């Protein structure tokens, strides 16, 4: 009995040890899904822009890519990290305000970041994939080997450095350096369009949204998380957690948009789908009406089949008809020939003389 107990303890400890030593790839699946949406959005935006369309879909795509529907330069976005992130050092250092906070009316300017959770897909990649305080989760205390598929050297993860919510002397944690590395290695490749559009964008968005974790709390029932996070009052702060917290009921002061970019994109795709269905319906209706008009036109034409047939017969037997005409004209010709040959007048007997003969 004692031996069995020791065996169970050994197996338990072995399992715990194995679990501790498991190397983890943080936020890899979340990153892949978000990146695919951004790639598809870039491809769709380039197509819509080439057509000159100015509709809800174009605006939603621009907000997904740039964070605004006013249109920006995609080449510039690929080559340069947006200047908004300079505020991380000069104005608002706390990562929680950029990636996890709920912004509402009445906030002081000091608490309003240039970008917020759900501002755009590239910004959400920055929140999801930049190393946190002390370069977590790529520090010595974590079993993680990659963050968003990148190793610590690529993301410039170093001890006592990183982007968190612990206030330090400005620039001492080199937050901007970590953000720049994330933009270059993670966000920039996702800004390359994949040449796909339409249904692919819709599918990519649906797959991305399946990864959103409902996270009600702090008086917010309509809240969703993307990425790793521990349970505390400061979600996605970078202190032991790297993620994005979305609020579908936020009202951001000083910004035109409050809802996450993916809500606008989902609505625009639904509208576009309805437009395509209506267009297809109108096209099928037009074709059907054209066929009905053609059928009605044929039915209204007079159907006189005898006249063509008679004309055909007449034209086919002209000699026969001419012969019948000649025979009618020459019925008395044989009688005249007999009279001429005998010299005797052939007169048919009278009917009264024949009757008298019969009475005798």
Automatic annotation (TrEMBL):
It comes from the Eukaryota. One of its GO terms (cellular component) is side of membrane. Keywords: Cell membrane, Glycoprotein, GPI-anchor, Lipoprotein, Membrane, Signal. It is a lipid-anchor; GPI-anchor. It is found in: Cell membrane. Residues 276-300, 317-327 have a biased composition (Basic and acidic residues). Residues 276-330 are annotated as: Disordered. Residues 1-18 form the signal peptide. Its main location: membrane. Residues 50-287 form the Trypanosome variant surface glycoprotein B-type N-terminal domain. Pfam families: VSG_B (PF13206). VSG forms a coat on the surface of the parasite. The trypanosome evades the immune response of the host by expressing a series of antigenically distinct VSGs from an estimated 1000 VSG genes. This is Variant surface glycoprotein. It comes from Trypanosoma congolense (strain IL3000).
């Amino acid at each position: 009995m004692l031996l069995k107990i020791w065996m169970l303890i050994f197996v338990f400890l072995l399992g715990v040890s194995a679990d501790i030593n498991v190397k983890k790839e943080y936020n890899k699946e979340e990153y892949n899904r978000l990146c695919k949406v951004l790639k598809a959005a870039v491809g769709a935006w380039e197509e819509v822009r080439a057509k000159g369309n100015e509709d809800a879909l174009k605006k939603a795509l621009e907000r997904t890519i740039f964070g605004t529907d006013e249109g920006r330069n995609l080449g510039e976005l690929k080559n340069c990290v947006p200047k908004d992130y300079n505020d991380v050092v000069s104005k608002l250092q706390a990562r929680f305000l950029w990636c996890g906070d709920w912004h509402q009316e009445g906030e002081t300017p000091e608490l309003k970041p240039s970008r917020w959770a759900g501002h755009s897909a590239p910004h959400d990649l920055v929140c999801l994939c930049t190393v946190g305080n002390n370069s977590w989760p790529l520090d010595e205390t974590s079993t993680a080997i990659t963050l968003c598929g990148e190793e610590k050297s690529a993301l410039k993860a170093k001890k006592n450095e990183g982007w968190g919510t612990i206030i330090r002397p400005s620039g001492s944690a080199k937050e901007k350096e970590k953000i720049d590395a994330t933009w270059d290695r993670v966000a920039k490749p996702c800004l390359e369009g994949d040449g796909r559009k339409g249904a692919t964008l819709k599918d990519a968005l649906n797959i991305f949204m399946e990864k959103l974790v409902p996270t009600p709390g702090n008086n917010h029932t309509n809240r969703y998380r993307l990425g790793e996070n521990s349970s505390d009052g400061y979600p996605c702060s970078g202190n032991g957690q790297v993620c994005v917290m979305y609020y579908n009921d936020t009202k951001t002061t000083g910004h035109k948009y409050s809802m996450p970019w993916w809500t606008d994109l989902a609505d625009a795709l639904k509208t576009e789908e309805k437009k395509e269905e209506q267009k297809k319906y109108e096209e099928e209706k037009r074709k059907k009406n054209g066929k009905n008009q053609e059928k009605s036109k044929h039915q209204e034409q007079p159907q006189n089949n005898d006249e063509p047939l008679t004309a055909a017969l007449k034209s086919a037997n002209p000699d026969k008809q001419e012969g019948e005409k000649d025979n009618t004209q020459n019925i008395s010709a044989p009688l005249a020939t007999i009279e001429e040959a005998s010299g005797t007048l052939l007169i048919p007997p009278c009917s009264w003389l024949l009757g008298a003969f019969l009475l005798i």
